[in-house]
Amino acid sequence: MPPTLASLVHHSALKLTVRAGRERLDTPVRWVHASELTDPVPYMEGGELLLITALKLDAEDADAMRRYVKRLVGAGVAGLGFAVGVHYEKIPEALADAAAEEGLPLLEVPRRTPFLAISKAVSAAIAADQYRAVTAGFAAQRELTRQALSDGPEGLLSALASQVDGWAALYDASGAVVATAPEWAGRRAARITADVERLRDRPAPASSVVGGGPVDGTDGTDGEDRVELHSLGTGRRARGALAVGTASAPGTAERYAVHSAIALLTLVTERSRSLYGAEQRIGAAVLRMLLAGQSDHARGVAGDLYGGLLDAPYRMMLAEAASASAGRARARGGADADSGSGSRSGSGEVDADGVEAASVVLAEAGGDLVGGFVEVAEAAAARSGEAVLVVPDGERRLVVLAADGGAVVTACTRYAHTVGIARSGSEQGTDEDELVVGVSAPAGPVAAGAAYKQAEQALSVARRRGRVLVEHEEVATGSVVPLLADDAVRAFADGLLRALHEHDATGRGDLVASLRAWLSRHGQWDAAAADLGVHRHTLRYRMRRVEEILGRSLDDPDVRMELWLALKATAAVSASAGE
After folding, report:
1. I need a labelling partner for 217 at 20 to 30 A (CA). Which of 41, 172, 312, 530 fits?
2. ∠ at Cα 199 (324, 468), nearest 5°?
3. In whole angstroms, what is the distance from residue 181 CA to residue 200 CA?
4. Is 259's pLDDT higher than 90?
C-alpha cells in the first residue's frame, strides 16, 4: 500500500509530531511538496504533504490562517508539515487551531529533520509499493496463464476473481454470459448484459465502468459493485467481453491482473488468421466430400473437429445476401409474402412493441445480416457445446451444417424471424443487402447432396416470396397452389388461356368452365357433363373447339397438365384479388 501520514509519523528517523488532525493520519501521501507561497494551491494536484517554514505567512493571524488552511483542504492536500526553529520556535496557535477546525493533519517537523529526508522517505515508500505491485502483478500473470492453460477460461476467471477480491464474468460475441466466478456472480453478471451489448457496438478495444445495481446481500456482499467492462478481440467487432466487479477501484496489482486476463482471453477467443483459414479450408473440403457422397472420407478428414455432427441427423442451411430493392419488390408482388420467418414457431404477427425491439437487429448488424447470421450460429454453438460447420459458398452465400433440433438451428431460426419482424416494421426499408435463408429437412451423412438441394429449393422459394427463412418441410408438405402465384406462372396462364377467355366473352359458349370440369373429372365425359348440366355431346363439341382454338391436342398429357396448372393459377389470382 502507498505511504500514509501515520507511516511517516512512525518513521523513527523523521521524529515528526502530530499537532492536529490525528484522526486522519491514515490518508495516503502521493508526494511531498515544499512551498512558501501564500497560495500554493494552483501548483498542487491533491494528495501531497505540503512542507512550509512560514517564511511569507503571518502564521499568528487567525483569519489569515483559516483562509490558508481552507484553501489547502479544498485542494485535497493530505497534510501540512511545519518546520519549527526556523522562523517560529513552535507552531503558532492560530495555525494549529485552523488545522484542528478543518481536520487537516498538522505535523511538527523538528529543525534537525530536513525536508529532503521526508521527501526521500516518501519516495522510497512509493517505489517499494510500486515494486510490490509489479511483483504481485507478474505473479498474478503467471497464475492466470497457468489456470488458462490447465482449466481454460473458467479457471482463468476463478483466479482473476481471487486476485481482485471480487467477481469476473465472460460474455460471448452476442452478449450472453458464458462463465462466471465465483458461482454466485451469475445473477450479477446477467444484470449488466445491456451494458455489454452497448460496449460490443463500439470499435474494439473498448472499455467502460458501470454499476452492477444494488446488491441484496444474498451473495455475501453489501453495497454496490464497481464493474469494469472490457471488449475482447482485435477485429472491428468484439469477439466477447470481460466484466470485473470490485468494491472499489482496483489498485496497481489488480490492474496488472485484469490486463493480463484481457490479453489471455483475447488469445483464447481470437484465433489466428492462419488457423482460421486452415479450418475454413478443412470445412470446405469436408462439405465437398459430403456433397459428393464420400461421407467416410469426410469423417476421415474432419477427425474430431466437428465431433459427432457428421454422423447425427443434421440440417443444412443456406444463407444468402439478396438485393434489398429486389426483395421488397418480391414481397409486394407475392400473393403469400409475409416478410417473416418460415419457422413453424413464428406467428407472423407484428405489433408496435415487437417492431421497436426487433429493429435493433438491423442496426446492430451494420447491414451485414449474413455476418450476423454467422455470429449467431457460432455463439449458440459456443454456449451449447454443439459442433457447427460454417463454409462460405461464393461471395454472397454461406452453408451452415448444424444438428437437427439443436441450439444452433433454433438460434438461427429465431434470428431470421427477428430480422423479418424488423424488416416488415420498417417503413422505408434498408438500402443494404437483405438476408434470405433456406433450411433443409433433417438428413444423415449419406444424404448431404439431397439436403443441399432441399436447402436450395427452400432458398429459392424464400427469395421469390420475399421471405427471410423457409424450411423445406413447409414447401414439401404444403399445397402447390401458392407457388402458382409467381409472376412468370401468371403470365404463362394468361397467355395460354387468353384465346379461350376471348371466345367466352363473345357469348358463344363457356369453354373455360367446360375445360375445368372435364380436366377435374380426368376426361370422364358423363361425370363432367353432369357437373356442367349439359349433354355429353355438347361437352365433346366444346372440347373440340378448345383444341381448334389452342391448336393443341387434349390427348397429350403434357397439354392437359399445362392447362390444369394455368386454370389453378388463374383461380389463385382471383382468390387473392377477392381477399
Report:
1. 172
2. 25
3. 21
4. no
- CA 8 from centroid of its chain's CA atoms: 51
pLDDT in tens, 263-275: 888 877 665 455 6
What CA–CA distance (Å, rounded) separates 523 from 534?
15
CA distances from 257 to 145, 329, 394, 446, 487 (A): 10, 55, 43, 50, 64
Percent of the chain clearing pLDDT 70 (strictly above): 81
CB 333 within 8 A of CB 576: no
Predicted pLDDT at 383: 76
To the nearest 10 degrees (0 to 180), the angle between helices 407-424 and 369-384 is: 150
Mean pLDDT of the chain: 80
Residue 16 contacts residue 95 (beta carbons within 8 Å): no
Q: Which three cell numbers stand for residue 460?
A: 429459392
The identity of residue 97, as a single letter, is D
SS3 category, 278: helix
Question: Amino acid identity of 417?
Answer: H
pTM score: 0.47
- The closest alpha carbon to 286, from 472, 445, 451, 457, belongs to 445
**CA dist list (Å): 279 to 14, 237, 302, 319:** 67, 20, 10, 20
pLDDT at 342 over 80: no
Q: Tell me, what DSSP letter sits at residue 79?
A: E
